[in-house]
Design a protein that fits this description.
By secondary structure, the protein is an alpha+beta fold. It has seven helices and nine strands. The relative contact order is 0.13.
Length: 239
Amino acid sequence: MEREYIKIRKPSPIPFDTRKLRALDDEFWKKWVFYYLLQFYQNYDSFELKSKIDDEKKKQFPRTERVIAKFIRLKLRANKKFGLNFSVKGEETNDENVEGNYDITINNTYWKDKDFYFECKNLDGTQDLTNKYVCYNTYKKDESGLNIFDGGVLRYFNGKYAQNLNFGGMIGFVLAGNNAEIKSSLLTKLNEKLNTSPEGDLININDNSIEQNNFSFDSLHKRLGKEFTIHHLLFDFTK
């Protein structure tokens, strides 16, 4: 089920020479990761995914985003060409029934021991899910009696995620609403100060950053005195 509106371009070939593999930079590997994620998005079976989502919604405590993230991981693993160069795991464990931290982690052995982490969040046009994608007040208290904040983007700046890297990823699962309006709401929210400020303060937005697809953008932030980039993909599963 190919979606022609998705712009996708195959990156430069991955060399066979081990020495050349070790010399490749982050941008080279990231382009290949984006290629396979876009390839998934272009060709996934919407009826199969909808059935899984509908079954999950029937549960007393549905975890829809977890079901979709697992669906993506399994489809990537089933892609033989992906498997020749990359591995994918979820939630820091190979056991699909055990919950951990990262929703999707993609790795290549020769990528200087780096992992590409993706936090996944549902989106439906409501402010509640927009906040959870970026940052929100849980109204729970820490040991000092202060409110605990959480959120997909925030986890890259509160000491939880990708501490040894200068990049990370977010994938938004659009389950209802208008993709363009949801993207606009996210950009507005990202301009707000996080509770970790100045850690995480937004520097700028690079719109349509991944192969000029309008469902993608990069957000550049301050972190530990340096710049940290989050690559965002908004996958519309409403169609």
